[in-house]
């Protein structure tokens, strides 16, 4: 999950983290997705949990796009009115997106969107009971996954809230496709806008 924001200039680097190359970022994204998919598969293998189903149709696609649009817009609003979130988002996006090329946005949307939703909403949420406690715990785990260090707590808090929205959409619809589409949409739109803005500023 990535936040949406509108920059006047490229985000400043975080001096505590060494810059990554494009290949390193892509490998890290793929490796993380693979690990999450393996964890989800092992969980299903050793637990009798009924995985949340995925049913393709106009309704889940429309609901996913609507939810993703709402998350993206609220993230943009938070970026404008909450300075700590803005700094946290800038560090995160600069670290992940700066080395990438524009076509890489596709993988940044698909790989985390599918793997994270499969584990946190598809398996963890029903395994923990599919209730409000399960929703809270799975959302917190999702948020912690997005915190690189303690200074990133505003981004972690936002990711936890988004996890709650995605989890609620999964429970309400009983269709994993809704949060998957919302997650992919949010990641792709946010990173695409950031890259276009940054590339445009770099060209001038």
Automatic annotation (TrEMBL):
GO BP terms, alphabetized: CAAX-box protein maturation
Key word Protease present: yes
Pfam families assigned to the protein according to its UniProt record, in alphabetical order: Rce1-like
Iron found in the keyword field: no
GO MF: endopeptidase activity; metallopeptidase activity
Keywords assigned by UniProt, alphabetized: Hydrolase, Membrane, Metalloprotease, Protease, Transmembrane, Transmembrane helix
Every CAAX prenyl protease 2/Lysostaphin resistance protein A-like domain range: 100-189
InterPro entries: Rce1/LyrA-like_dom
Protein name, as recorded: CPBP family intramembrane metalloprotease
Organism in which the protein naturally occurs: Leptothoe spongobia TAU-MAC 1115
